[in-house]
Automatic annotation (TrEMBL):
It comes from Salicibibacter kimchii. GO terms for molecular function: ATP binding; ATP hydrolysis activity. Residues 1-244 form the ABC transporter domain. InterPro entries: AAA+_ATPase, ABC_transporter-like_ATP-bd, ABC_transporter-like_CS, MetN_ABC_transporter-like, P-loop_NTPase. PANTHER family: AMINO ACID IMPORT ATP-BINDING PROTEIN (PTHR43166), PHOSPHONATES IMPORT ATP-BINDING PROTEIN PHNC (PTHR43166:SF6). SUPFAM superfamilies: P-loop containing nucleoside triphosphate hydrolases (SSF52540). The lineage of its organism: Bacteria, Bacillati, Bacillota, Bacilli, Bacillales. Pfam families: ABC_tran. Keywords: ATP-binding, Cell membrane, Membrane, Nucleotide-binding, Translocase, Transport. This is ATP-binding cassette domain-containing protein.
Length: 259
């Protein structure tokens, strides 16, 4: 992306002339406090928001130029999306929820469990096996824990056969153990299939553990962009400070030198 900006109708400038390149196969974590622009950036990358100005290209396409619903659906078909909330159909079986992941390449009728082809049902079971949930394929989605629901959502995403994965706070609703398991799972799937992985997180320790590169946003601008091995904890601390806190800390430093 080059000089990408996003201004909302009320005048809020959420993104300010961002210049970023994310390479195929990279594992990138986007960090920032509330209002930093990270969620807006995620929505622009996935085509749920149009940029106001600049140039943005994902997998050879500019999502902001895809005006027709069919074009946007085809674009998102190649992006495996994982959200904080699982968006499962609670009154349907786990297997049926996973079969819905094939909707981008099959008609609704063909993904309905009772009449879905054997090949499609086998593929769904393989996806469930990959996330360790094959034993509950016949259970209702409403019977699962939060961590289990996220695993099923990931199995559904696998059914898309995506070219890249984007995750928006995928472990925010989970306890630390379940969150670690989900991150382990997502990273391993991306490595196995050589997929680009972009995730929005707020836990700095998780970002350092699972990211290869961290992009830190502050007030719509890139404040930090480094490979994880070169990042200092102090840089992450400063990323989450407000502008006023940063000014006060710098002033304290000046006073401390007796100037």
């Amino acid at each position: 992306m080059h000089e990408v900006s996003k201004v909302y109708p009320n005048g809020t400038e959420a993104l300010k002339a961002l210049d970023l390149t994310i390479y195929p196969g990279e594992h990138v974590v986007i960090l920032g406090h509330n209002g930093s622009g990270k969620s807006t950036l995620f929505r622009c990358l996935t085509g749920f928001e149009n940029i106001t100005s600049g140039f943005l290209e994902i997998d050879g396409k500019n999502p902001s130029q895809l005006k027709k619903r069919k074009e946007r659906s085809a674009f998102r078909r190649n992006i495996g999306l994982v959200f904080q909330h699982y968006h499962l159909t609670q009154n349907l079986s786990v297997l049926q929820n996973v079969l819905f992941g094939a909707l981008g390449r099959q008609s609704f009728r063909k993904v309905c469990a009772p009449i879905a082809s054997l090949a499609l049902r086998n593929e769904a079971m393989e996806a469930l096996e990959r996330v360790g949930m094959e034993s509950v394929a016949g259970n209702g989605a409403d019977e699962l824990s939060g961590g289990q629901k996220q695993r099923v959502a990931i199995a559904r995403m696998i059914m898309q056969r995506p070219r890249m994965i984007m995750a928006d706070e995928p472990i925010a609703s989970l306890d630390p153990k379940a969150g670690k398991e989900i991150m382990d799972l997502l990273v391993s799937i991306c490595k196995e299939n050589q997929l680009t992985f972009i995730s929005i997180l707020h836990q700095t320790d998780i970002a350092l553990q699972y990211g290869e590169r961290i992009i830190g946003l502050n007030q719509g601008e890139v404040q930090l962009d480094k490979p994880v091995p070169f990042i200092q904890r102090s840089e992450l601390h400063e990323l989450y400070m407000s502008s006023q806190e940063q000014k006060e800390e710098r002033l304290e430093g000046v006073v401390g030198y007796g100037i």
